[in-house]
Amino acid sequence: MPDVQPLVREFVLKLKRRKVEGSHAVARQTAELLRSVVSQHRMGSTNQAAALADAIRGVGEQLIAANPIELAVGNIVRRVLHIIKEEDISSTAVGIEGLSVTAESDDEYDSENDDHPTLSAAVLAAHARNALRAPSLQTLLEDIPVSTALSRSASSAGDSDGKSGDKSSKSRKLKHDVIAAIGDLIDEIDTCYDQISEQAVEHIHQNEVILTLGRSRTVKEFLYAAKEKKRSFRVFVAEGAPRYQGHVLAKELVEKGVQTTVITDSAVFAMISRVNMVIVGAHAIMANGGVIAPVGMNMVALAAQRHAVPFVVVAGSHKLCPLYPHNPEVLLNELKSPSDLLDFGEFSNCMNFSTQDGTPLLNVVNPTFDYVPPKLVSLFITDTGGHSPSYMYRLIAEYYSADDLVVKRRSTSTSS
Amino acid sequence: MDLRRPPRSSSGGVEPKIRQVGFVTPDVSSEPPAPAVPAAAAAAAQPAASSAGSPPASDLSPGSLSPVMIPPPRHADHLAPGSPSPAASASELGDDESWSRAPSAAELEANKGDLAEIRNDNVSASIPQKQKTSKAERRAIQEAQRAAKAAAKETGLSGKSAGTVSGANPAMSKQAKSSKASQKKDVPQAASTAASEKKVTERPPERDRKKDAPHPRMQFDDVHRVEKAKKRAIVNQSEARNRVELFRHLPQYVHGTQLPGLESKFFQLEPMHPSVYKVGLQYLSGEVSGGNGRCIAMLLAFKEAIKDYSTPPKKNLSRDLTAKISSYVSFLIECRPLSISMGNAIRFLKNRIAKLPLTLSESEAKSSLQSDIDRFINEKIVVADKVIVSHAITKVRDNDVLLTYGSSSVVEMILDHAHELGRKFRVIVVDSRPKLEGQGLLRRLVEKGINCTYTHINAISYIMHEVTRVFLGASSILSNGTVYSRVGTASVAMVAHAFGIPVLVCCEAYKFHERVQLDSICANELGDPDIILKVPGKADLGHLKNMADNENLQLLNLTYDATPSDYVSMIITDYGMVKYLAPLIAVFYLSYLGIFI
Questions:
Q1: Where does it reside (chain A) (predicted)?
Q2: Residue A267 and residue B532: Cβ atoms within 8 Å?
């Protein structure tokens, strides 16, 4: 795909240099890039889906490596891979007539397929999704990737149909469907704010006192929506050192006429006894329901738990990450420049001191993210509605497939 | 009222707070309530009575009560200043001083004389005697007193102490009214003293009962009181705009407006002593901060003031000096609200002044007070810190990673000492806006060669994985074990507790206080709100600069917060290392009220 490489390289550079930041922007640009990749991809004759998926994996690997902390990139890549699988299954199912789709699968639905050779694509796609979600024991034990099974079925379907002329139209259709689905994904990313904000009136009533830390666009839209609906509430905004984005949020809220009080981060514990609800945004939601959030959020969550204040996390579904957080404080974190905390000019004389073994006496730690364990979160509000942390794995299973967790390019010669 | 009435203590124990612990001489509780005689008694008789009262009182004080004894104020019936009762009520007044604003400000106008103090002694002292006075009888007595008061108006008392009590007990309106009336009086003479004493002692018992509970502080949400306070203030403060609703009960002024005004008035000092003025300015500018620092600065300024003090003619040294000290304190409060350590120190000082034997000459009294102050600073702060360090050093082992928050003088001493002893450890300094006190501590530690890590309070969850011990300082420890210290301490203790890391709080015993607090909102200090807008080093964060006048925006700059006791693993004081502090605090705080070491 020579045409797409410059685009990919450019985006990789942007990610590496942190020129593009924020899950929303990153997710959107990743989706658009992948859509270009798909449209530029030349579909082969066989195993189009697998080849396409592999191409996506190749690009995705580069993107994820550029900024491993920006989990939205990986999320979108995996979403696209899942889309490819789904579209492939549904298009294959439509093409199949009188043939059981998953001969390998043990699903009971398949026995019914024999009796009902012509099934709607949607139903078959649903069946396929079932197969994807709960891979059969056979495939698990034999370590046969599902895509291979699919491609086998596709090829067998193609063989049995004997309509070779359909292949080109099928490949065109697959690409078309995938591009359309990615377009839907982009729309979903864009409209997540609206869908989340619609739920604001269910949670904010009268005379509420809300606490938030830093600035999240989702939270801002959420509060705007509640204000539109004439709900009365006041907001305590904690500054959110060292970026101090809380000031920006406070300004935006004040302009809308919301009673806002700016407090320092150290005063969160002091004020939280008078707060009804804590509403915060997240950087990413992990598979166990844990939250990667801007630094300081764990402190707020602990304080909220102590005072029995509901801790609500609002996040779009593009922030949902299928990975499990192992040692997230270290592995999913980034340390920023100490100059945010200490002025180099003032402390220059301290920086010269060192011990005998040359290690400096003065270290500065400036992490970007914080991990909030699922037991501290009361509710997740996503564009699909409100969920408890223990439900997040279901959402993830809907959007992602299990073998895409590690995005790594495989050689395409697995089948036939 | 008369001897028929039994002392209040044996009346069935309505008093919750102050109990007799130990042996009491019968004289103390059964002193004839001379001031309770109705106003018909000759005024001339009273001075004689008062002077007669004092020698026995002074005889009484040294030997009558054992050192452990905590005499309740109502049991001492003396008029003289040398008795424990005035000491007790002086401490109560000191308590008022600490916690009330307007009345202290009120005292500034009329600054001489403190016979109102004696008046209050008699209130507390003689109330138990006349518990059974019927309402009608009391009213009659009050009428008689008012008549006598009107007669003695030209020799009025200073409004100081009366104002104190009145301000501190807004619920007691009657008392307030009579005090305010007395505020208009001039420096008293003995006759008027007696008259006003008579008037005061006839107050109904409920007032005294209410006195036992810690007084509510100055109500800043009451507009009238605030207005009154403003009229009497030396320092011109304008109230800040955009006050947070939740904190209407605390004063919030625009910072930076007072300093230039005060600086210009430096040479028009009367009645302020220059060293006190200087300390006040240092508080305002933030140059002197920290519980120990402020307390020591204040006591040294008072020592200077006492050195330069000379009793005006026809006045009693202890009463006049107490009034002067109270006026200084009210000035300091206007510069910056008192810390709990300062409040306790003032109480101690007033106690010492009140207990001065009358036989001392002026210079002897002054030198005795100065040595008392030196002794206080030495015993309660300097030596106490050394003891705390020696206790805490046992908790610092090799390869420890110690976390501290902000800048506490005691914790810094512990770290220095541990480093001198050659322990291998490293320190994590956690800091927060807006004061950024940790930077000073960081600099001092690095200069000594201690390996330090610096971070901000949001990152404590990140850094807590590495930590083995948390050392925190405190502004005070309250009676229910709550640690009252710099805002953010509660968050640090909470996160440390969540990670299972021991939290050790180091606090000198003189900072303990008997009050209780459940959260950080009931009592706090509001700092300059505008400083929240200005983020140093980030000029582009001027987002909110233009919005400061918007009525929807409020800024909150808390100074203190209350850490619940269950987050604290151990408290290290000069009296030892304890986990459950409540009984310790009760005993040691009450010792400030009565006999003092």
A1: Cytoplasm, Cytosol
A2: no
